[in-house]
Write a structure and sequence with these properties.
The complex is a heterodimer of chains A (125) and B (899). By secondary structure, chain A is mostly helical. Chain A is 60% helix and 7% strand. In chain A, strands 1-3-2 form a 3-stranded antiparallel β-sheet. Chain B has 899 residues and is α+β, with helices and mostly antiparallel strands. Helices cover 51% and strands 15% of the residues of chain B. In chain B, strand 3 and strand 4 form a beta hairpin. The longest helix of chain B has 44 residues. Chain B is globular. About 2% of the residues of chain B have low confidence. Classes of the chains: A mainly alpha (125), B alpha+beta (899). At the A-B interface, helix 3 and helix 4 of A face helix 2 and helix 3 of B.
Chain lengths: 125, 899
């Protein structure tokens, strides 16, 4: 991924990303979701290993909104049709997408380095 | 329920956050619980805690680190918010004094942990059980023993049938008793425990099987026609690896094939007693087919009493009505069967009032009560300790408190803040206590009492225990927090603010709250330590009791011939073969057999008539404890013959039947006469035995008992199914046991080995209770001593630190180190001595209560009552001396400059 250098530097402060932040951003990268939808996505992403408990989820969502990485859908027209307005929907913002990408790159580089050193064959054995 | 409590928890979060997300969080939480719920109750409980922890940690994060851009709220908006403010303040306070916090948590953890552990055991034995349907309708029915006899005895099968058929009180009447049999597989034979039950026992109690089904009415109709079995859950798990295809398969039990129809519920261990995990259940109609029972009269003889009865009252019948109706039935039975029913009656007790059995319950409740008292006292010491520490801290904070009072803080606010801190502490301490209890219980579960029955007590930490721990922690927090809080917030603002520290000396009261706490602590420690001392001495006493037989190393094996399917005619041949083969084991020198060994589990008596000696008033016969032994038995057990001879080689099947009797029997029945040559008669089989010798007494059932009349029969003349073989020799006893087991297997692989053990293990049965008592009280007593002495150290150290200036003045006026030490010590030791004397007096007052648990030691044992106070006062002296010495090294100039 080609990112401009200054932006990457600025993002570096937040890397490595908290696991729950990473998974929430990842879940929102598909489409806008509300709380329960995010929990389900994260369960899917992690083969059911990571359950975001309610307070963790909403605590993180508030943090991410405060950082400007995600935003709440406030306009009626933006919200998915047929959903109660009591549910708060969130969508990822460009800055959030950049952070997500940067973290993914970091993880990829890390994984590659690990595989280079031990070799995937050795690992399997 | 869980949702409601979660909603309550959400109030921990800031109002803004709550308004935005509360309802969605609740829904999400419910979903999470629902997902976990599929994995069982425990998972749900875990989920609840996980969710609660989640909320609490977010609340702490949001409250402790409020975002800058949110304007800080000056004034708490509601009670919840102000409580949170108190909590935040308390957290900060605790974090600022890590040493105090650690000591407090550790102290509380020990105190609460001990309580939780003991309570878990009490809970497992006395309070919990299988959940039954509508337990308030269930009753236990007992038959009393004769006129004025024990009211809660077992019943006979015909009585049970009458109870079911001749009354309309019950919607179900069920019966059960324990049995013992052998499970045969292709290459092995194994002893198993189970219960024979009436077909309706499970349905009457409202139990559901884990697999398959329980019994159906057809299986309770005709003798011997339905060989079906329900396996116990644990047995199924261990023996069959939880194989769910077991239903429909057959197992061989006592020479007969039984079809497995189901597996019992996981929580169901059995009905006889908690902790006895039954391997299986079979219908009553199969009882006569079990080899151990042999005869068909079991279900028809009215004088054959061995069963327990449980019944469910019809919805419109109350207990009093049922009692009256059973009284009528009892009278009818007395008239119809005068021989079997004279003076007897049915007794009915609501099942909810019985933990195990009315007889056992009273003993258990008193032991449980004693243990709970002991750990309660330990916790009390822990609390007084902390109260002392808090008082000291409160004195340090006097100025801060005075300022706040002067600025208009209400006293109630300050007290609340104090209490928040102590309750928080005690909750954390409660958490530590749970961990400790968990660990203690793991130890305990691995501890198998030395009896041949597997004990499987479910002493886990369940919801009841959690609630108990929570309550104990809260109470402890309130208890040790309230007094210091009230004391510290006493509004005497002016002198404190005037920095009038020195004034404290003149006004110090001789006996204040702090001193009171110290005296209490020492007194309680004294009681606990004296108790511990007594039980340790009692253990020694128990070990020193002369049992009357040899305690030397030996190997023991126990087999049951009848249960192994061996005919009566062959018992004696097999017994002598076993004896010969055992004697031939290299390294074994002596072999003997007996029907039972003294001081094991079980106690047998036989009815005898003694020509010329009247039976006790009200009885037709004498009842006497007995044993059936090989000619070598008295030799091997080293029981000396006092007069005549013992059972010998010359006594065989064809010769005159003989017995040897104990000295107590001789004295009881033939006082002042020579019993040798006299006769006794066993009326059941109408045989006459000649007394050939008198031997020394032995303890028979318990070490605490008085010697009782005892009679030895010859095995060669009285074939016995139960055979305990004792072998002694040059090789270690454990090795002998192994050799004996191998020999038994070689002689007859079908022989069921009931038990095999060393003599040391056998004797440990009787020492089990005194050992446990000494161990528990020793541990708790020591814990009390440690807590009390740290408390004392803290209090003295604090007092000294408050008197620095006074000491400085004294020293600059010429007092030397020794006199300063003496001065500080005098004050502390006076309190210790007062406490010690109170403790001694209390224990002496409790002596009668403790005496019933002791062996061979007086409840006012002089050694204990000297050693323990010396140790306690010695430790207290040390705890006071250390800070006193430090005081004496104060540099007077420095001291005077302080403040």
């Amino acid at each position: 991924m080609t990112e401009s250098a200054p932006a990457a530097e600025e993002l570096d402060r937040y890397l490595p990303l908290k696991a729950q932040w990473f998974h929430i951003l990842l879940a929102l990268s598909e489409e806008a979701k509300h709380g329960s939808g995010i929990v389900r996505s994260v369960l899917d992403q992690t083969d059911g290993k990571l359950r975001l408990w309610p307070a963790t989820l909403y605590g993180s969502l508030e943090d991410l909104v405060a950082l400007g990485w995600i935003e709440e859908l406030t306009e009626l027209g933006e919200r998915p049709a047929g959903e109660s307005e009591k549910k708060r929907f969130y969508r990822i913002k460009p800055s959030g997408a950049r952070v997500l990408t940067a973290e993914a790159d970091r993880l990829q580089a890390l994984a590659r380095a690990a595989l280079d050193r031990v070799g995937s064959g050795n690992l399997a054995r | 329920m869980s949702r409601l409590s979660y909603r309550f928890l959400l109030y921990l979060l800031p109002a803004r956050f709550r308004a935005a997300h509360a309802s969605e969080m609740e829904n999400l939480f419910a979903e999470a619980l629902h997902d976990g719920g599929r994995r069982g109750r425990l998972a749900r409980l875990f989920g609840w805690f996980r969710g609660a922890f989640d909320v609490v940690s977010l609340a702490v994060r949001l409250r402790l680190a409020p975002r800058r851009r949110n304007k800080p709220t000056k004034r708490p908006r509601n009670t919840m918010d102000s409580l949170l403010q108190d909590l935040r303040y308390a957290f900060r306070n605790l974090r600022m004094r890590p040493l105090f916090t650690c000591i407090a948590i550790l102290t509380l953890g020990l105190g609460i942990g001990a309580n939780t552990a003991v309570f878990s055991v009490v809970n497992a034995i006395l309070l919990s059980g299988v959940p039954l349907r509508a337990p308030e309708e269930l009753v236990e029915v007992y038959t009393s023993d004769g006129e004025g006899g024990y009211p809660y005895s077992v019943s006979s099968y015909p009585d049970y049938v009458d109870l079911a058929e001749r009354t309309d009180l019950f919607s179900g009447v069920a019966a059960f008793e324990a049995f013992f049999s052998r499970l045969e597989t292709e290459d092995d034979t194994e002893a198993v425990w189970g219960e024979v039950v009436s077909h309706n026992l499970f349905s009457t109690l409202g139990l559901e099987p884990a697999l398959g089904r329980y019994f159906v009415p057809d299986e309770g109709q005709t003798l011997g026609t339905h060989p079906v079995v329900v396996l116990g859950y644990n047995f199924w798990k261990q023996r069959f690896g939880s194989d769910s295809s077991i239903v429909g398969q057959t197992i061989r039990l006592g020479g007969l094939s039984y079809t497995v129809v189901g597996v019992g519920a996981e929580e169901l261990q059995g009905f006889t007693a908690p902790g006895f995990s039954m391997d299986m259940w079979i219908p009553y109609m199969m009882l006569p087919s079990l080899p151990s029972s042999g005869n068909r009269e079991l279900l028809t003889a009215r004088n054959n009493r061995s069963i327990f009865i449980k019944a469910r009252l019809r919805p419109n019948v109350d207990v009093d009505h049922a009692r009256a109706a059973l009284g009528t039935l009892s009278i009818q039975l007395q008239q119809a069967y005068p021989d079997e029913w004279e003076g007897r009656e049915f007794n009915l007790v609501p099942t909810e009032d019985v933990a195990i059995h009315p007889l056992v319950d009273t003993v258990l409740y008193s032991v449980a009560g004693m243990l709970m008292t002991v750990v309660g006292l330990v916790l009390l010491i822990a609390c007084t300790n902390l109260a002392g520490l808090l008082l000291a801290r409160a004195a340090e904070r006097k100025k801060e408190i005075a300022i706040r009072l002067a600025l208009g803080a209400r006293r109630s606010q300050l007290v609340r803040q104090f209490l928040t801190e102590t309750v928080l502490l005690s909750l954390i301490g409660g958490g530590a206590g749970l961990l400790l209890a968990h660990w203690l219980l793991r130890l305990l579960v691995g501890f198998q009492p030395p009896i041949p029955v597997p004990i499987n007590l479910d002493v886990g930490i369940d919801q009841t225990v959690l609630v108990f721990t929570l309550c104990v922690a809260l109470l402890a927090g309130l208890f040790f927090g309230l007094l210091p809080a009230l004391q510290a917030t006493k509004p005497d603002v002016a002198p404190t603010l005037k920095d009038d520290v020195g004034a404290g000396i003149g006004r110090q009261r001789r006996f204040n709250l702090k001193n009171g706490l110290l005296v209490t602590q020492v007194a309680i420690s004294m009681v606990l330590l004296l108790g511990a001392g007594l039980f340790i001495r009692s253990l020694r006493g128990a070990q020193d009791v002369d049992l009357g037989f040899s305690l030397r190393e030996a190997g023991i094996v126990w087999t049951m011939m009848e249960m192994s399917g061996i005919e009566r005619e062959e018992w004696e041949i097999l017994a002598s073969t076993l004896e010969e083969r055992a004697a031939a084991i290299p390294g074994v020198e002596q072999v003997a057999t007996a029907e039972i060994l003294p001081l094991g589990v079980g106690f047998q008596t036989r009815i005898i008539d003694i020509p010329g000696v009247d039976p006790p008033p009200g009885d037709d016969h004498h009842e006497i404890a007995f044993n059936i032994v090989s000619p070598t038995y008295l030799d091997v057990m080293e029981i000396p013959v006092v007069a005549g001879r013992g059972i010998g080689e010359e006594d065989h099947e064809g010769s005159t039947p003989v017995v040897a009797i104990s000295e107590t029997a001789a004295r009881r029945y033939w006082p002042g006469e020579n019993p040798i040559g006299r006769e006794i008669v066993t009326p059941r089989n109408e045989r006459t035995y000649r007394i050939v010798g008198v031997v020394k007494d032995t303890k028979v059932w318990t070490i605490g008992e008085e010697y009782r009349p005892y009679v030895y029969f010859a095995r060669t003349q009285n074939p016995t199914s139960s055979l305990m073989m004792v072998a002694r020799g040059e090789i270690p006893e454990a090795q002998i046991v192994g050799e004996l087991r191998r020999t038994v297997r070689e002689v007859d692989p079908q022989l069921v080995l009931m038990d095999s053990k060393t003599m040391t293990e056998h004797l440990s049965v009787m020492l089990f209770a005194p050992r446990m008592a000494a161990l528990l009280l020793g541990v708790f007593g020591l814990l009390a001593l440690v807590l009390a002495s740290t408390g004392l150290y803290g209090v003295v150290a604090f007092t000294v630190s408050r008197r620095v200036r006074e000491v400085g003045i004294r020293m600059s006026l010429g007092a030397d180190q020794a006199s300063v030490i003496k001065m500080v010590l005098r004050g502390a030791m006076a309190l210790v001595l007062i406490g010690a004397i109170i403790g001694l007096t209390l224990t002496a007052g409790l002596a009668q209560l403790i005496a019933q648990f002791l062996y061979g030691v007086s409840a006012i044992d002089p050694i204990t009552f000297v050693v323990v106070p010396v140790v306690l006062v010695g430790v207290a002296f040390l705890a006071a001396y250390l800070p006193a010495r430090r005081a004496s090294r104060i540099d007077p100039v420095e001291a005077l400059r302080s403040e």
